[in-house]
Amino acid sequence: MTTMTGLFPESVGSTAEMLISVQRIQAFLLYDEQYHQSTLSIKSENESNNDVKNGEKDKTKNGEKYIKQPCINFGINVSNASAKWLPNQTENSINNINLTVVPSQLVAIIGPVGAGKSSLIQAILRELPLSKGSISIYGVISYASQEPWLFNGSIKQNIIFSSSLDKERYLQVIKVCALESDLLKLPYGDRTIVGERGVSLSGGQRARINLARAVYKKADIYILDDPLTAVDACVGKHLFNKCINGYLKEKICILVTHQIQYLKRVEKIVLMENASIVSEGSYQELQSGNLDFFKSLESTEKSKITYEDQDVFDKDEVTLNPLPVFSRSNSHHSISTSMGENKLSQIQSEPVEVIETRCSGNVSPRVYLSYIFAGGSVFKILFLLFICIFTQMLSTGGDYWISYWVNLEDHVFRNTGYISTTFSGPINNESLSDSLLWWSVSRKLCIEVYVSINIMVLVVILIRCIVFVSFFTKSSMNLHNSMFDSITRASMLFFSSNSSGRILNRFTKDIGAIDERLPTPLINFINIGLSLIGTLVVVGIINVYLLIPTFFIGIFCAYIAMYYLSTSRSLKRLEGVSRSPVFTHFNETLKGLITIRAFKAEIVLSKEFDEHQDLHSSAWYLYIASNNAFGFVFDFILLIYLSILMFSFLNIDSDTFGGNVGLVITQALNLMGNIQYGIRQSAELENQMTSVERVLEYTNVPQEAPLESSLDKKPPKEWPSRGQIVFQNLCLRYSLDSPYILKNISIKIQPMEKIGIVGRTGAGKSSLIHALFRLALNDGSIIIDGIEIHQLGLHDLRSKLSIIPQDSVLFSGTIRKNLDPFNEYSDHVLWNILEEVQLKDIVEDLPVGLNAKISEGGSNFSVGQKQLLCLARSILRNKKILILDEATANVDPKTDSLIQNIIKKKFQSCTILRIAHRLNTIMDSDKVLVMDAGKVVEFGHPNNLLANKDGFFYKMIDQTYSKEKDTS
């Protein structure tokens, strides 16, 4: 009955959870599958397993390698295609699109922000379902996404991805994607671990690796979604000449771009506006078409400063590094196709990936104490302990009272020869009455006492349950909040060293174990421990000699339990660590799902996931097997103990009451079950405590500096009022054992100056911004308006700076919350800001306007629209210092011009630091800061820097712009 009453509520709860899980899984499985209808794809030679015999082979013409186009006709035909992402969406994402792309054609898709360029690409990739029309695809597709997707592996693994290794092709792709010099700088070459989302690389390096993966795949159609925005002009020119218009010139190539300087080299330009194609043709045809958007492109192009570089498109080689190189080692080997069998990675020893830590040995008592004191005060803990002890005393007392009652009946039977059914009145027989005086109890009183004890047990158990639930809930909540607070205050090094899968593992599985799995073994361990003590007391009272075998059996059981605990605890820790790669792989797969589908790599990724899952399942299986093995051995030992106990009663004293014998037997049976179950629960408690151990580990990660300044260092409320920034001997590194990224930066930026920051990818431009926000370890000093920022709390510092990052950040929630998270502004102000950034019409078209939901990562907005929302947010903040980290890289020239004008108007009295790859955007700056290899190379007015023809900046400009040809 006890087992049934205990298991029945648990089974009901488990059944309810199962039904909910089945419903959720069923709803997920019933979602629409990837769109395939009205899309035709034929097999090409590139899908053959014998790529060398039947597929493509790199050919050489005029010293340049390119990919030979197979004889079969390939192409894309889009006919009257319309589509929208959501069925209830009022307007189509693409509307009545007609487009034909033929073999060996380079097609550029251009248009303003939100025109539908990326939506058209997604429709071709069958990610966006068509509401009407058809898209026919003839050939194999390779795809480079607009936002680079890199998984946590080496650079080489990211480039090769699902393809087989072709050394010659691999080296050629490295060359045409301008990765040679980058690999030389990296300590492990192409074996360098990029980290999750490529966190260890610069934005330009991530973009080029993402492009290299697409180019390396043997395909017929290459779709490149804006791959040139994150790189500087020199590298961008190399990518266009050597890769897009060189290595892929015999292939179909669809290029989405905002880089208007390359449009004259494109065979067909597709101009999109308002989800439709408004015009298509060559550059000359669109130029004569009197199109407003194209006119704006021309005006933007004419506004650029041009310099002599006549042969920039005609040279056989674009030299990427003719500029002075500072602090660069000359010991590296050259990376080129001439290397032949030499590996790119012959630079240093194998890279060491930061693995997840796994504790060993016993769970520290500190872990138990931390969990206990997280649940409440000392008074609450003592009260809970008292309730548990009192409950066990009542339970044992009830059992003992039953024995007392049975002994009473036995005593009456022995003295009267029969069982009295009315054992309540006075006894007339004086001798019998004398023999029963010591009982001094009636049957009615026995019943009343027993019922009272059981009622008290029920009440106390109810109180104990309420206190336990409150205790466990508070403990879990406090541990979660402590870990969350610690993670949000962790240094940037922590996030670069730990994948999101590891972090999610702690917040999901480990917190889930603390919520759901830890309370049960803890309660059972306490109850069983007290029950065992009560049992031993009862057995000792009845027959003290029975404690002797109990003692030896207890020692033997303790030895086995210690052996089992050591094994199961290690297996549980191994299970926890092996679970993190499952989360990481799943997380990375979701983020790169479009790329994975485009590469037809679903099976490859599924196999990798199965490998991670099998490893985790192996650890879990061993954990379960060890539990079952322990149970079998323990059952056998306790069976021997019970047999000894039973045989001991064969020689029992005849004066011993049967109630006492029954009590000992029931207590022994209870002991047999409780010892095994108790040790199992103690093992389970220790195993689940590893989750607390893992959570506590993340509550003690390295932290950033304090958020708030000390009272004597608190800056004035209006600080900074001018915006002067002084860097003095600034050096930066991301960890104590890593090399310095910035080296002896000493510059002075006057109030309201507009500073352009330029340099090749990896020069340290973004690291300078990291230093300003104190995201890394700074040596030296940074002084803003006379206050050294390292003396300030991080909140006091960062709240005074505004930034528009290269990768725009939007949070899940409403548009209103993203613009004004603290509800400081009225709707009127928000609408005015949206109107200034030309997003008002778009937001007004949404069903609930400012309360419209932004999906995770802002995926329901285009990249350009997200950038404009970030600009609107910065305008609302209205801070004295604004940082632009390539803020206009992902927008068209017209929107770029809009953003530039807004910045000039709204931030005229502010100090602006602008990182730029498009040099024309910083030519009107007050000063230009040129960086290379973490050092300041030049710093001054653009005209002064251009006057020095041997200077770094002049050579960058010289490589970027070509002199306009005389058409007269």
Characterization of this structure:
The chain has 30 helices and 24 strands. It is elongated and about 125 Å long. The model is unreliable at 37-45, 47-57, 68-72, 303-348, 421-438 and 962-968 (pLDDT under 50). The chain has a six-stranded mixed sheet with strand order 8-9-10-6-11-12, with helices on both faces. Strands 18-21-22-15-23-24 form a six-stranded mixed sheet. Strands 1-7-4-5 form a four-stranded mixed sheet, with helices on one face. It folds into five domains: 1-31; 40-304, Rossmann fold; 365-698, ABC transporter type 1, transmembrane domain (ABC transporter transmembrane region fold, Up-down Bundle); 723-799 and 926-960, P-loop containing nucleotide triphosphate hydrolases (Rossmann fold), CATH 3.40.50; 807-912, Rossmann fold (3-Layer(aba) Sandwich), CATH 3.40.50. The chain is an alpha/beta fold.
The N- to C-terminal Cα distance equals 104 Å
* Fold-level CATH name of the largest domain: ABC transporter transmembrane region fold
Query: Averaged pLDDT, please?
Result: 77
The count of strands amounts to 24
What fraction of the residues are assigned to beta strands by DSSP?
5-15%
- CATH homology group of the largest domain: ABC transporter type 1, transmembrane domain
CATH architecture of the largest domain: Up-down Bundle
Helical element count? 30
Low-confidence stretches: 37-45, 47-57, 68-72, 303-348, 421-438, 962-968
Radius of gyration: 37 Å
**Shape designation:** elongated
**CATH class category of the largest domain:** Mainly Alpha
Main β-sheet description: 6 strands, mixed
Helix coverage percent = 40-55%
The assigned structural class equals: alpha/beta
As laid out across the biggest beta sheet, the strand order is 8-9-10-6-11-12
Tally the structural domains: 5
